[in-house]
Write a structure and sequence with these properties.
By secondary structure, the chain is mainly beta. The protein has one helix at 14-32, and strands at residues 74-78, 81-85, 89-91, 95-104, 109-113, 118-126, 132-140, 143-145, 160-163, 170-175, 182-192. The protein folds into 3 domains: 1-54, no CATH class; 56-93, no CATH class; 95-192, Immunoglobulin-like (Sandwich).
Length: 193
């Protein structure tokens, strides 16, 4: 159903325009319920006109202007990430990955594929020993860059090592040769740059 802007016309009798007027009210109600609390839509507390969610289509390219006069900030989605523009591109929040039972062995296996142009950290908690290791990473130009060792490894031990094939946006992990296969809790968060 489409909204009819010119209903009623000045010369219309209300009775003759009633179906179009009712259609406009139905359109307004249906449209306002998308992403909004509206007319008892089941959101608690229901405050008419407030947002429940915010749906955004992915933009094909970055937004580089504020558009309308008086606009101070624009929010938009690009490649599944949320940004704002206020004269500069700003990522809104990080993207996270979590696996509560990642099987690790001495053979490298894929943990996560990250987008090009991001910075982040990946953390492993080995469930058998409770050992925690974490690594920063950077992706740029279709390649992930990793440190040779984790940040603050336990004294004398590096149980998890990361690898990435060249060129690749995949982060792989494996256990050191003397470590028995075990599960790990894996958490990663990254921010587009």
């Amino acid at each position: 159903m489409a909204y009819l802007e010119n209903i009623p016309q000045p010369s219309d009798q209300i009775a003759s325009s009633q179906p179009e007027i009712l259609g406009n009210f139905q359109y307004i109600q249906s449209t306002m319920q998308v992403d909004h609390a509206w007319d008892g839509s089941g959101i608690s507390p229901s405050i008419d006109g407030t947002h429940q969610t915010l749906s955004m289509p992915n933009q094909a390219v970055d937004i580089t202007s504020l558009g309308a006069t008086g606009c101070a900030l624009i929010g938009y989605a690009l490649a599944g990430n949320l940004y704002t523009w206020n004269g500069a591109k700003n990522p809104v929040s990080g993207v996270s990955y979590f696996n509560a039972a990642q099987a690790l062995t001495t053979t490298a296996s894929l943990i996560i594929t990250v987008p090009s142009a991001c910075i982040g950290i990946i953390m492993f908690v080995l469930t058998a020993s409770g050992t925690i290791q974490y690594f920063p990473f950077l992706s740029a130009g279709g390649q992930v860059y990793l440190p040779s060792n984790p940040i603050s490894p336990p004294p004398g031990t590096v149980l998890v090592t990361l690898t990435t094939p060249l060129p690749s946006l995949n982060i792989n992990a494996k256990l050191s040769a003397s470590t028995a296969p075990q599960n790990a809790i894996v958490k990663s968060i990254y921010w587009p740059i």
